[in-house]
Specification:
This protein is mostly helical. 61% of the residues lie in helices and 0% in strands. The chain is built from five helices and no strands. Helix 1 runs antiparallel to helix 4 (84-93) and helix 1 packs across helix 5 (96-116). It starts with 13 loop residues before the first helix and ends with a helix.
Length: 119
């Protein structure tokens, strides 16, 4: 990403959050992050809402091109914005350590669902 020749340091805290919060807790926290960044009127993260709210995540120094790149990376349906699902998928994809743990989290969530399922 072009950050005007500034070195951008990304610290991946998602694996730590997953360990502390478990699968459901992590998803809840990602939903809260989505709420912080989304356009309140449209219910999605737009370029304008990302630019306006990026300082909440310490991303205020990213260029417009970087922010657009982030949106494009996660925009699976091509509407120019991120839905909550697209945002969560993007967060998982951007976390290499968490991707390695994703199988464990999936198994944990499935076991929890089976335990909660009443025959």
């Amino acid at each position: 990403m072009d950050t005007n020749n500034k070195e951008f340091q990304f610290h991946d805290f998602l694996p730590l959050m997953a360990d502390k919060l478990g699968g459901d807790g992590l998803i809840d926290e990602m939903c809260k992050g989505f709420q912080l960044l989304m356009d309140q009127d449209k219910g999605v993260i737009t370029f304008d809402s990302l630019k306006k709210n990026s300082s909440f995540l310490g991303l205020q120094d990213l260029s417009d091109a970087d922010l657009l790149s982030m949106l494009k990376e996660g925009d699976f349906d091509g509407d120019g914005a991120l839905s909550q699902m697209e945002f969560c998928v993007l967060m998982f994809r951007l976390s290499p350590d968490l991707m390695g743990q994703s199988e464990f989290l999936l198994e944990q969530a499935l076991e929890q669902e089976f335990d909660n399922f009443q025959y």
